[in-house]
Specification:
The chain has 99 residues and is mostly helical. The protein contains 2 helices and no strands. Helix content is 64%, strand content 0%.
Length: 99
């Protein structure tokens, strides 16, 4: 019985990318309309809030890239391991044709 092949990892399923892109959108909105639109209620007045959002977005996207590369690497290793096991299964068994 064959094992069902697991699906390859997709970058768009990684939450780090989603958060990074949302932060980029908020930073662009902040650049266009001013920092007041992205400031949380009750948050202390700080200059450079848009730049903080942009830096956070870059960090999240970099984390997503590293996470995705790691996942793809592990996926490829598992695929190679399963392929090697499938190739090796036939070699371990003695031939049925010998009588």
């Amino acid at each position: 019985m064959k094992k069902k092949k697991r699906p390859a990892p997709k970058w768009w399923k990684n939450t780090y990318f989603w958060i990074g892109f949302i932060l980029i959108g908020l930073a662009l909105w902040g650049f266009a309309s001013g920092e007041q639109v992205i400031r949380d209620p009750g948050q202390r007045e700080e200059s450079g809030l848009v730049w903080i959002y942009l830096a956070a977005a870059i960090i999240m996207i970099a984390n997503g890239i590293m996470s995705h590369r790691s996942t793809v690497f592990e996926y490829n290793e598992a695929e190679e391991s399963e392929a090697a096991q499938a190739d090796g299964e036939g070699e371990d068994r003695p031939s049925q044709a010998q009588s």
